[in-house]
Amino acid sequence: MIIIVTGVSGSGKTTLGSLLAKNLHLPFYDADDFHPTANIEKMTHGIPLTDHDRWPWLDHLAGNIQKWESSGGGILACSALREVYRERLQTVPDIIWLHLKGMKEVIAERMAARKGHYMNPDLLDSQLNTWEEPGYGYQMDITKTPEEMVKEVLSYPEISQAASHIGIIGMGVMGKSLALNFAEKGVPVSVYNRFVEGKEENIASQFAEENTEFPLLKGFDDLAGFLSSLQSPKKILLMIPAGAAIDQQIAQLESSLQAGDILIDGGNSFYEDSNRRVKDLEEKGLHFVAMGVSGGEEGARRGPSLMPGGSREAFDILAPYLQKIAAKDTHANPCVDYIGPAGSGHFIKMVHNSIEYAEMQALAEIYQLMKYGLKLTYPEISKVLKNWANEGLRSYLLEITADILLVRDGREYLLDMVLDKAGQKGTGSWSLTTALNFQVPYSPLSEAVTARMLSSNKSNRVELAEYYGHRFGAFAEDKVILIEKLKNAYALTRFINHEVGFDLMKTVSEKEGWNLNLSEIARIWTNGCIIRSTMMEQLVGIFKDNTSIFTTKSLKSKIKEMKLDLTYIVGLGLQHSHALPVMSAAANYFLSRITTDSPANLIQAQRDYFGAHTYQRKDDPSGAFFHSDWKASVPHPS
Ligand SMILES: NC(=O)C1=CN([C@@H]2O[C@H](COP(=O)(O)OP(=O)(O)OC[C@H]3O[C@@H](n4cnc5c(N)ncnc54)[C@H](OP(=O)(O)O)[C@@H]3O)[C@@H](O)[C@H]2O)C=CC1
Ligand SMILES: O=C(CO)[C@H](O)[C@H](O)COP(=O)(O)O
């Protein structure tokens, strides 16, 4: 939405425009700020501008208007005294013109009261003489207060009924937060939630009513009304559960959409479903953008990490909007970029979540070791984690864990009241099946999923704990030394978790021909998402020059040092009956990756013994396959 406030100098364009911008959450621009120095010099000295002076300035503004419109709109205060000037600015359709009108005396008084403005009050006569009365737009009486004028403007049909740039379906945790994020960035947004009689009624309209500070947010409880409120091409973001709900929602929408309209699935859909949907909808002339969204409720509201894949053409249309709502990296660049074709955006979100699972499990293991092994109190553990954050291990998950440990429920810690059965919705398990399908070793990350499964069978655990008399053992070692070793063990586990996830992305990208940019993915994950961390910032540089964390020269000596502590901690923990699924799998994974002589020669021999599966020989570089009659060759004791 572009609104241009016109009128002679001193008529109150800047006051009304900036107040309106605040109310509509749109950026405000003052055309005076775009004048070249020569024009300012002239006006300061009371010399009227000629058309020759104005054309380059107007052309510059006209170009900006197009840019502002494509990135969600803006409000411009510009004298635009003559019709030819206004025509020059009319570079996008549907500009809303507000023309400020008032008596010369009132304007002169205001100009005289103005401090620090370069416009010489003597120019008022020249301005009034140049002014050509427009036959369109809204004529506004400047004797009203700016607040009264804003109220009046907000009731104009062009604004109150303006077509929305984005539509969101699904007013759950994420949909609501994203809607407010868009509205706050000045993007006109319509929202819709399904109507289930007696259960889910008027969710979207109520939501809009609860958020009247965003006049460009409109709520609809009927799908037809929602769809007709959207600008063409329609851009509809689905924030509903993955699976059948997405297919049903697409089926319900399809007949009302036109070629070129864009559907975006921002949920945690399985990427193979997204592969299919991108293809199916493309064949029907519709664009489908399968977009991973991370950051939870707070991220969605304040700035998520966004991973859009699928239709490139649609991404280019959506980019200005997504860039507005996304988190910003350390260089203030938005944490969003086109990921790749088909379901690649959902694929990397799935991998993100499996790293998330492993990072959470690693912290759970650290917490367990500190609580039962080191006998630290919750505030002590929290303090250690905060220190680690300040010593280079900062991550969102580490920080929230340090917070969680301090929360009380009456006299108890709330954490002690939380039932130890971990839930999961699918992305973790899908990552494992995908890794298996692509033959990518995934043990540390898969252990995190398995740990959640094991935790969920609480009654069986309780029964077996009693049966075997399981108790966590306490460590006798020096606490300070052990905490340092734990820190290194945790740090290396994190590198390994990320190596595993990025390795899956590298392999699938090569096999699917997606050309995923690992460094750019790391950049998108440096802010907004759940696995954001200082390590992720390091990975941006690492994946520019390396395809593996393990071959990064600058990390080699540190990794070697941390390896000693990881293996020590895993050994110590296991000896003291602490299950450490992710840390031990990480140690095993790393050792297996750096071993020259693996015992797999025995596996091959066994396979050949019982099934004639053949094997290759170390002393035959040709790679030929051999079979031996192992049984017949066993020397019998004489
Ligand atoms: N919560 C989080 O931290 C994150 C969630 N996600 C993903 O985003 C998506 C939405 O999550 P979230 O907002 O948390 O979920 P919620 O459960 O909070 O909201 C789900 C929304 O979908 C609607 N809905 C449910 N079933 C259907 C259906 N069959 N047809 C149409 N609408 C339906 C619900 O409407 P009603 O109220 O009528 O039931 C509700 O508005 C999911 O895919 C989730 O995995 C992604 C990143 C983070
Ligand atoms: O996508 C998310 C964050 O990025 C979800 O919040 C998270 O993955 C929840 O998944 P689960 O319920 O399986 O733990």
UniProtKB/TrEMBL annotation:
Pathway: Carbohydrate degradation; pentose phosphate pathway; D-ribulose 5-phosphate from D-glucose 6-phosphate (oxidative stage): step 3/3; Carbohydrate acid metabolism
Name recorded for this polypeptide: 6-phosphogluconate dehydrogenase, decarboxylating
Catalytic activity line of the entry: D-gluconate + ATP = 6-phospho-D-gluconate + ADP + H(+); 6-phospho-D-gluconate + NADP(+) = D-ribulose 5-phosphate + CO2 + NADPH
6-phosphogluconate dehydrogenase C-terminal domain span: 345-631
InterPro entries, A to Z: 6-PGluconate_DH-like_C_sf, 6PGD_dom2, 6PGDH_C, 6PGDH_Gnd/GntZ, 6PGDH_NADP-bd, 6PGdom_BS, NAD(P)-bd_dom_sf, P-loop_NTPase
Gene designation: gndA
Entry-linked PROSITE patterns: 6PGD
Described purpose of this protein according to its UniProt entry: Catalyzes the oxidative decarboxylation of 6-phosphogluconate to ribulose 5-phosphate and CO(2), with concomitant reduction of NADP to NADPH.
This protein's record includes keyword Transport: no
PANTHER family attached to this UniProt entry: 6-PHOSPHOGLUCONATE DEHYDROGENASE (PTHR11811)
EC number in record: 1.1.1.44
Higher taxonomy: Bacteria, Pseudomonadati, Bacteroidota, Cytophagia, Cytophagales
Name of the top EC class for this enzyme: oxidoreductase
Subunit structure: Homodimer.
Kinase is among the record's keywords: yes
Keyword entries, A-Z: ATP-binding, Gluconate utilization, Kinase, NADP, Nucleotide-binding, Oxidoreductase, Pentose shunt, Transferase
Family: Belongs to the gluconokinase GntK/GntV family. Belongs to the 6-phosphogluconate dehydrogenase family.
